[in-house]
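I am still getting used to backbone structure tokens and would like to learn alongside you. Label the sequence line and the structure token line clearly, so we can match residues to local backbone shapes. Would you write everything just below, so we can both look at the same thing?
***
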Amino acid sequence: MAISDEMAAGPATTARTDEQERWGPRLLAMLIVLCSAMFLDALDNAMVGIAVPPIKEELGMSTAAVQWVVSAYVLGFGGFLLLGGRMCDLLGRRRVLLVAVAVFASASFVGGIANDGIVLIAARFVMGLSAAFTAPAGLSIIVTTFREGAQRNKAVAIYTACGAAGFSSGLIAGGLLTQIDWRWTFLLPVPIALLVLVGGAVLVPRDPARGPGRRNYDVAGAFTVTTAMLLIVYTIVEAPEVGWSTPRTLVQFAVALLLLALFTVIERRTAVPLLRLGLLRNRSLVGASLAAAAILGTYMSFQFIGALYLQEMRGWSPLQMALAFLPCGLLIATIAPRAGVLVGRFGPGWMIFAGFVAYTAAYVLFWRIDVASPYLTVLLPTMLLIGVAFPFSFPAANVQATSGVADAEQGLAAGILQTGYQVGAAVVLAVVTATMAAGQPDVKSSTAMLSSYQNGLYVVTAISAVTMIAAFVAALRKRSARPVAAPAE
């Protein structure tokens, strides 16, 4: 009856109803809890990245070993995202979210009290694995709770703003806590995770009861795709150190491709597959995932180059570096809550294109760095442009990836999108670091370091520019494919 009334009222009345709809206190509180999980993930990543040097010194780890404090998290996150996304749909999003947050808090506590590098790396891997379940669970709960359109766009935009706030806070908190003791960068997330756990248990609605029928789990598919993703991410992380053309790297890539081929065969023959292959024919989802790979891949590579430039060449402290990046985070947190209106007005495709116009301009401006670049005229304009680009592109990619996907597959769609983010970050950063190292002398002169930074920036800019062109073409095609309304009689 409600559907018939809405159809009879017409699209204008429906639009007004959607605009007039207000979120109740409980719904808003639930959104805050889900956003806090996003905030926690971004906070943790930013803090631990700054804490790596003192971790290396206190635990007596080598440079090759200490990089796994960061890489182990990426390995766990990227390797288990597809499985995590699908488990949200099969086991229930609320249940997966709560269990994963509890595991995250436990692993973070273990990392904070660890006195051995291996234990710390293992804790980071478990934290990344947990995030591989919380990320698709949180996003899929949002997109299945808030109906498609202005309400969902607004919720996703706020979700993005909390991630930006977490990253900005993590930079400052990481700089301050590292000067006290690096262990606090692991211990601080524990009470935050416990608050998210309690809030989720109270405010997130229970998952709908499932029928009495037997549940089928695609164990073979889960094993092959998770092993393949773990091997791909591991190989990408290790390739800059061992060499891209070495037999070890080539064999690992070949095995990963064989596992993915086997996974495809398994999914075609399984009655209830882990990944319905038809979902990969969804152009909006695939396009958003590729854009996500470029968003995080280029930004993480830029941040890596910027951190090296400010700390190695300019001699800035971690806290000074954090303050240098702070305007970017503040601008993201300011614009992102309003980005949902822009996505609704212009469409996610055009917003992704606009974001990459700003990204590309930002990276080109950063080419001007030298041994004594003034912050206000060289670094700050880049930070401000990225602060505009991120809230334009990130919420738009999330909205585009989940639009038109059935509720039963929202967790999987979120997992595919998050896989794009994480694998893109790993691949682009690996290519950039390899480019920076190629042909550079061992002597760390200012000229050699500056040339290395600029070579990496050229790769970052090229990837951003190619994505910008692809986003423009995709937005044009979508507009031309849109049916023309018949004239009113």
About this structure: The chain has a mean pLDDT of 82. The radius of gyration is 23 Å. The longest helix spans residues 446-481.
